[in-house]
Structures are given as C-alpha cells and as structure tokens.
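Table 4 source record.
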Amino acid sequence: MSKVKVLVVEDEIIIADGICDTLEELGYQALEPAINYTEAIEIIIDEEPDIAILDVQLSGKKTGIDVARRIREDFHFPFIFLTSNSDSLTLNEAKEVRPQAFLVKPFSKEELYTSIEIALHNFAESKIKEDDFVEKDSIFVKEKGVYTKLKFDDILYLKSSHVYVELYLINGKKILLRRGLNDVLNSLNNYFIRVQRSFVVNIKYISEVKSNSLKIAEKEEIPIGKMFKEGLIKRMNRM
C-alpha cells in the first residue's frame, strides 16, 4: 500500500509549505504545492494526486472553484476547500461543485486530519456503485487510523466473515473491512469475480481450476460454488 498523495493549491507559499509539513507529519505524501490554476492542473496530470486541498481564492482569473470544476469533469478525485472567507456568497458558490469537506483558516492539525479522512471516506462511499470508480486501479482502505491506497493488483482474494470482509494480499497481509462483500466487489474492477457465497477472487492469480475448487497463486485453495463455476470459466475466457 502507498501513502495518500495530497495536492495543496494555495497562493500564499508560506501557508502552503506549512500545510505540506503538517501533512507529512500526519503520514500523508504532500506533493509540491501549486499557487494557481495552471500549476494545479499540470501537477494533477503529472502526479495524479488522491485528494486536493484547494484555496477558494487564488491569484489570477481562475479560482480554486475553477480547479474543483476541472477535477470533477476530468480527473474524478476528492477535494477540500480552504477559505478564510466563510460568507454565504462564497460558500454557496463553492457548494455548487460539491466538495467533500471545508476547512476555514486558521485550522488545527486535528481539523486538517479529520477533513481529509472524512473527504476520502465520503468519496469512496459515494463512488461504490459508479462506473468511473470501478475503472480505477485502487481503493482506499483505513489502516491504523489513516486511509491508504490499495492497488487491485495487490489483492489475491476476499473472504466474507460475518460483518467484515477479509482482504488477502500478495505480500501475505490481511486487511479487515467493515463492509458487505457485495459492496466491496462493486468497488473493484472486472478481474474480481465471486466464486462462492463467501469468496471473491482476483482472476489474475488463479493458477488452477478443479471441479469444486481453485488455487490462487499456486498455494491458496478456494472453494467454487456450483452456481458460480460457469460464470467463472466464461469470465476467464474473456480476459
């Protein structure tokens, strides 16, 4: 898993650097900050951040709200608005682009952390059933109180366990998610398929298929339900 990459778009460089330092202390990866719309878009294209903190007011003709509109239209990742002006006109304009959270200057380290975690959580939840989230190559999972990015290719298989889903990874680790198996499956791409009521596997790592079971990465044996086998074979033949 990798750290969540955060882009700060703030035209006061001292404030931007301070936010980036705090982000690093909190365990995130802070990208080089942008001071205007053009720089922000260039960094988004080059670095592919996971979340952005956008000052509503920026120097130049285009504002943080313009950056947010572009993110929603073309890049599809969460963003937080940063503002020192909380008047109703500014807030109403900002709300139109549906940010995942707001931060009002001055803010504390705890408020910054809370805003990012809420934004990542709300974005992930809102995208579970949307196609554009399924096309991406990773999901956010919470570990040790912080959201991190987990690539689909790092997941071998999933197992339903009561109110949890267990994610088994190629590095031998196991992650617990408090979500239903169907919800998690809908967050993944087409390489994942249900093979039994309690199991979802990553087709990329299937090494052997038997009459009533399969092997993942040549070692883990997973049961196959009768009603799922035909669909599994068809999916494998299309990949």
